[in-house]
């Protein structure tokens, strides 16, 4: 069968590539065409456009590149209809993908499946109308989404979380067996215990969060802070927000290796909070925004969820501390970090709560379950 996939960022490339591998195992004649990335290309098929040519986030970048975005969207729509796949599989990236789904539904009878559903439970809940109208099957990777969609009388399939597979595969790999000493030698680190810093994947997030994180680092001379660098952002950008007197290393393409060795972590909200928990690393979730009190008020008015971290959302209670807006300051961050490093009063309870989170997520094999269900729906 012919599968057309669309992703818009690095995480989508990772999860879609694993789904493609699983689809090949289920369908020996699988033929792929996609808007994707290098990982998908390594599996096979035809890469029509790389997600790096489409990844514009934030109001200003989107407006500056609006003509390019609209051109990409038009080309994508035309390419799908010309290729006539047996199914269109959309992966996250709702701003682009829901527009594509609407067009394809109006102009063809191609089945449209969504893998890694849009996070409409957080905001833009009105998009349920578009999903109900345009999406034939939706495959979720977060267990709490099942109840949300049931309340909207829209049945979905929970297949497990691919982060469980990704972290499990890393731990079973040669890199996952790396010793702390070898890791330190590779990156020129000292013997001090490591605190991982995952400051976000966007420049604005890094700018807003890294300043406070670095001031906090100065309060822990017995630890070494290491930043997990994002490959698409140059080291010089990080250095702009690191005082010269602080010796902080930045490691690129090695986030999992860093988490494997870390004693604790400071993490900006996102999938990174879940990955940190799967590595059993106690964490403080940090999300600074300007005009903190006003931002917190707006968050309460706009967001439909109690928490911003996936860890807390999955267990439906605050097992990791979230410092948001004006709460994200050096004093609070220092207090919370001291409570989760070795000997801290919150550390053991957080590790126990992580076990509950893993149980709710379910076991490995998310990509395989999704692929089996996709093929079954198509042939059935």
Tags for this entry?
6-stranded parallel sheet, 48% helix, 7-stranded parallel sheet, Rossmann fold, 13 strands, 380 residues, 2 domains, alpha/beta, single chain
Structure description:
- Helices cover 48% and strands 16% of the residues.
- By secondary structure, it is of the alpha/beta class.
- α13 links the parallel β11 and β12.
- It has 18 helices and 13 strands.
- A seven-stranded parallel beta sheet has the order 3-2-1-4-5-6-7, with helices on both faces. Strands 10-9-8-11-12-13 form a six-stranded parallel beta sheet, sandwiched between helices.
- It folds into two domains: 174 residues, Rossmann fold (3-Layer(aba) Sandwich), CATH 3.40.50.2000; 196 residues, Rossmann fold (3-Layer(aba) Sandwich), CATH 3.40.50.
Quick overview of this protein structure:
48% of the residues lie in helices and 16% in strands.
In helices, the fraction of residues equals: 40-55%
Count all strands and give the number.
13
**CATH 4th-level superfamily of the largest domain:** Glycogen Phosphorylase B
Ranges with pLDDT <50 over ≥5 residues? 291-303
- Broad shape: globular
**Count the helices. How many?**
18
Main sheet: strands, sense, barrel: 7 strands, parallel
The N- and C-terminal alpha carbons lie at a distance of 13 Å
Relative strand content: 15-25%
* Widest sheet: strand ordering: 3-2-1-4-5-6-7
**What is CATH's topology name of the largest domain?**
Rossmann fold
- For the record, the count of structural domains works out to 2
Q: Can you name the CATH architecture of the largest domain?
A: 3-Layer(aba) Sandwich
Question: pLDDT average, as an integer?
Answer: 90
Radius of gyration: 21 Å
CATH class of the largest domain: Alpha Beta
Structural class: alpha/beta
């Amino acid at each position: 069968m012919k599968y057309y996939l669309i992703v818009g960022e690095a995480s989508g490339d990772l999860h879609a590539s694993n789904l493609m591998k699983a689809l090949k195992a289920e369908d020996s004649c699988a033929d792929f065409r996609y808007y994707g990335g290098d990982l998908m290309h390594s599996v096979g098929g035809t890469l029509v456009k790389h997600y790096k040519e489409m990844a514009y986030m934030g109001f200003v970048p989107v407006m500056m590149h609006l003509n390019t975005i609209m051109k990409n969207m038009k080309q994508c729509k035309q390419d799908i209809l010309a290729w006539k796949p047996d199914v269109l599989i959309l992966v996250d990236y709702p701003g682009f993908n829901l527009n594509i789904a609407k067009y394809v539904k109006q102009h063809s009878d191609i089945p449209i499946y969504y893998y890694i559903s849009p996070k409409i439970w957080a905001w833009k809940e009105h998009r349920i109308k578009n999903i109900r109208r345009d999406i034939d099957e939706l495959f979720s990777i977060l267990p709490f989404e099942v109840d949300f969609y049931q309340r909207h009388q829209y049945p979905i399939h929970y297949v497990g979380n691919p982060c469980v597979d990704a972290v499990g595969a890393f731990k079973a790999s040669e890199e996952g067996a790396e010793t702390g000493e070898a890791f330190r030698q590779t990156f020129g680190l000292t013997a001090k215990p490591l605190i991982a810093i995952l400051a976000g994947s966007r420049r604005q997030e890094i700018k807003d969060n890294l300043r406070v994180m670095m001031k906090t680092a100065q309060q822990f001379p017995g630890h070494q802070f290491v930043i997990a660098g994002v490959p698409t952002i140059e080291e010089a950008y990080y250095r702009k927000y690191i005082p010269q007197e602080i010796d902080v290393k930045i490691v690129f393409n090695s986030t999992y290796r860093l988490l494997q060795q870390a004693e604790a972590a400071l993490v900006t909200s996102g999938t990174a909070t879940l990955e940190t928990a799967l590595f059993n690393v106690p964490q403080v979730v940090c999300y600074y925004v300007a005009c903190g009190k006003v931002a917190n008020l707006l968050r309460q008015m706009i967001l439909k969820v109690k928490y911003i971290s996936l860890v807390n959302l999955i267990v439906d209670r605050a097992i990791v501390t979230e410092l948001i807006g004006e709460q994200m300051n050096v004093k609070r961050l220092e207090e919370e970090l001291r409570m989760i490093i070795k000997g801290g009063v919150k550390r053991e309870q957080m590790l126990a709560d992580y076990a509950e989170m893993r149980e709710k997520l379910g076991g490995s094999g998310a990509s395989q379950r999704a692929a089996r269900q996709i093929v079954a729906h198509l042939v059935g």
